[in-house]
Amino acid sequence: TEMKMHLLLCLLVSFCCSLSSAQDSDVSKPAASDKDSSSAGELESLKAKVEALENLMKKVSICMFFCNFLHKASTKVIFSVAVGEEGVIGPVDTNTTLIYERVLTNIGDAYNTSSGIFTAPVAGVYYFTFFYHAGGEYDSKLVLYKNHELVVLTQDHPSKSDTADNGGNAVFLQLQQGDQMFVKMEYDTHVYGSDYHTTFSGFLVTQM
Ligand SMILES: *[C@@H]1O[C@H](CO)[C@@H](O)[C@H](O)[C@H]1NC(C)=O
Ligand SMILES: *[C@@H]1O[C@H](CO)[C@@H](O)[C@H](O)[C@H]1NC(C)=O
């Protein structure tokens, strides 16, 4: 809704721009009423009209450029979520999307708390980071996916002596509108879920 507001504002601004340029440039002036005017005169007035139209088009396109710029600069997508389920999650028997249920920040509503999936609302460069905590008795492996394509991961092998694991990873990614990002827990691995330990965050760095 915030984006729609910006777009509406932009349209209003360009409408006003084009109105004022229309007044400046006499596009709306009626053609000479003198039926006896020479064809040279008609040609002159036609030329003037074309020039005025060209000026108007230039002004409109400048307005549109600034609108677009303002709109892009004002689009904000920022999220941070935590697993929110207290205790050990896993080991799972298939690769499973980790659902982060506790929302810390979700500006732009691009992260879905039921599916665990972030969907890019606009094309651009995004930054993602994910951290986990786990006990050391099983493997831990979290994989960041972009539309089912592995991007980066974080992993720790089981160990009897090392009783607590912490890991994470981060990446800058260029996404198209609609691209989906999510974290999968690999089969036979586990993480420790809580309101604080295991998190997934991301934000739109710049639109492209
Ligand atoms: C599970 O994920 C791993 C990458 O973490 C991948 O190599 C493997 O093929 C996946 N297995 C299945 C059954 O999708
Ligand atoms: C969030 O994900 C759930 C489960 O996949 C789906 O039913 C729902 O429509 C999604 N919500 C939005 C706003 O896309």
Automatic annotation (TrEMBL):
It is found in: Secreted. The keyword Cell membrane does not apply. PROSITE patterns: C1Q. Residues 1-22 form the signal peptide. Coiled coil: none annotated. It holds the Pfam family C1q. One of its GO terms (cellular component) is extracellular region. Transmembrane segments: none annotated. Keywords: Secreted, Signal. Its main location: secreted. Residues 72-208 form the C1q domain. The keyword Secreted applies. PANTHER family: CEREBELLIN 13-RELATED, CEREBELLIN-RELATED. This is C1q domain-containing protein.
